[in-house]
């Protein structure tokens, strides 16, 4: 994964580097949006904290911290130009640690593991 300066400053700003090492932080499932909001508020993803109508602004924010789909691994790269991050990592309906599946869109039994091995 691409670790940008923006990510590093978000991590250190929130002391999350220390949190990530603590077993207590892993006990409760935490919503993905909540985890980000604890670091940078709702404004991390939403302009003025308000969701956009089409999700384009939010998609840009994901990529400004994590890098673009095209720059990521073999699970992500093939979706450049056809999906946004939230199609797989819905921030308000998935948790930290979730690994999105493939079978909601592909019916040939592919998995993240099989894609990463190729
Ligand atoms: C990690 C980025 C991220 C953060 C942080 C985040 N959101 Fe969102 N939010 C999204 C995305 C992407 C969508 C649209 C897709 C979806 O519904 O998951 C969304 C949708 C919404 C919606 C539309 C209704 C819905 O649930 O679909 C509301 C309201 C909302 N967010 C409020 C908030 C509030 C309030 C906060 C701060 C507590 C927040 N969001 C933090 C990414 C984020
Ligand atoms: C096609 C579904 C899909 C899309 C679209 C997608 N992801 Fe993922 N993502 C996954 C899967 C599956 C994994 C776990 C396997 C892996 O590491 O590739 C993952 C892993 C990750 C991880 C590492 C989480 C961990 O376990 O450490 C991050 C960060 C991430 N994705 C961010 C993003 C961002 C940012 C975008 C948009 C630019 C995005 N993803 C779009 C499916 C997706
Ligand atoms: C302000 C910077 C920032 C923005 C914007 C942002 N992220 Fe993150 N994200 C982080 C940091 C920091 C972490 C924790 C370290 C890591 O796992 O890379 C993280 C972690 C993640 C993880 C891994 C969670 C796990 O399971 O460990 C996923 C998936 C993810 N983000 C997806 C998204 C998506 C999708 C969006 C846009 C809707 C988004 N992020 C927007 C900074 C950001
Ligand atoms: C939200 C729907 C969605 C999910 C979930 C999804 N994909 Fe895709 N995937 C697409 C779309 C749309 C395309 C581009 C059109 C096409 O080629 O079918 C695509 C294309 C691909 C391609 C390139 C073309 C091909 O069919 O080989 C690969 C490789 C791929 N996906 C792997 C995965 C893997 C691995 C997962 C699970 C981690 C996954 N996808 C999850 C929607 C999805």
UniProtKB/TrEMBL annotation:
Residues 35-107 form the Tetrahaem cytochrome domain. It comes from Shewanella algidipiscicola. The lineage of its organism: Bacteria, Pseudomonadati, Pseudomonadota, Gammaproteobacteria, Alteromonadales. Residues 95-118 are annotated as: Disordered. Keywords: Electron transport, Heme, Iron, Metal-binding, Periplasm, Signal, Transport. Pfam families: Cytochrom_c3_2. The keyword Lipid biosynthesis does not apply. Its cofactor is heme c. Its main location: periplasm. It is found in: Periplasm. This is Cytochrome c. Residues 1-27 form the signal peptide. Residues 100-111 have a biased composition (Basic and acidic residues).
